[in-house]
Amino acid sequence: MLKLENVVAGYGRTRILHGLSLEVPRGGLVALLGGNGTGKSTCLKAIAGLVTPQDGTVALDGRVINDVAAEDRTAMGLSLVPQGKEIFGGMSVAENLMMGAYHRRRDKAGVAADLEGVYTRFPRLKERRRVLAGMLSGGERQMLSIGRALMSRPTMLLLDEPSAALAPRVVEEIAEAILSLRDLGLTLLLVEQNVGMALEVADYLYVIRGGRIAFERAVDDGVGMDELRDFYLSGAH
Ligand SMILES: Nc1ncnc2c1ncn2[C@@H]1O[C@H](COP(=O)(O)OP(=O)(O)OP(=O)(O)O)[C@@H](O)[C@H]1O
Predict the structure, then answer these.
(1) CA-to-CA distance for 158 and 79, rounded, in angstroms?
(2) pLDDT digits over 204-217, tens only?
(3) String of b and e for 9-26 (b: at least 16 CB within 10 Å)?
């Protein structure tokens, strides 16, 4: 469904991705692991259209989308759940969710149904729908961030470190939510530093090092936690 080939990208003259290639098949749950500052978020931004590749291609369903604007990629089914839970703290939970459906203004009935769907998936968001998003806990913010992305009716979600700074019990909840999205038929690319969580949910793993993919393997083929941790920690330093 999604294919990156030899993507070179960065900020200004600074190159961060040095020829990165990866694939996410339809319905797959693929994890991209790597240490701090290795370019994981930059990779997601290149897919979402927030960073333009200087070389290489990003293709969705066989179509190269390098020149497609970010908002048009959202309409094509790509939705980014950014790191840092970039929610609007001064707006209510419900208003934040509606922001995810901004390009579907003419589809009032569909948007209302999807809002109910998000509330069914995350009952805590329903309970807190009138609360200012800035008052939510870390786990609730992450759920809101995922819920807001779902409001654009995506076919593929790009999740940027959804477990970051969350307690283990909450990470487990988020992992379950991610698995339930896969069961719903969504295709997922999950950027993580939490190796345990990635191994628990993903069916395929990539490790990024120096702006390129340095290791990849199907989880079913056996990937040891220690092997992975050593691999990318040794590469990060
Ligand atoms: N907007 C920007 N302008 C300039 N440099 C940036 C920008 N965003 C990120 N960088 C730099 O690009 C490099 C890769 O950042 P990126 O956020 O892609 O890494 P990451 O693997 O997601 O790391 P982390 O897990 O710490 O978020 C870092 O050195 C970072 O400082």
Answers:
(1) 6
(2) 999 999 899 988 99
(3) bbeeeebbbbebebebee
Q: Which of 7, 17, 33, 41 is the pocket-test mutation for ligand 1 (most atoms within 8 Å of CB)?
A: 41
CA nearest neighbour of 44 among 69, 19, 78: 78
Mean pLDDT estimate for the chain: 91
Q: What is the Å distance from ligand 1's center to 120 Cα?
A: 35
Side by side, the strands of the sheet bearing 63-64 are: 14-24, 2-11, 55-60, 63-64
> Which ligand 1 atom lies nearest to the CA of residue 10?
12
ipTM of the modeled complex = 0.94
Ligand 1 centroid, distance to 183 Cα (angstroms): 31
Sketch the domain layout of the chain as residue ranges.
2-236
The pLDDT value given to residue 222: 78
Please check whether residue 153 is in contact with residue 181, taking contact to mean a CB–CB distance below 8 angstroms. Answer: no
The CATH architecture annotation of domain 2-236 reads 3-Layer(aba) Sandwich (3.40)
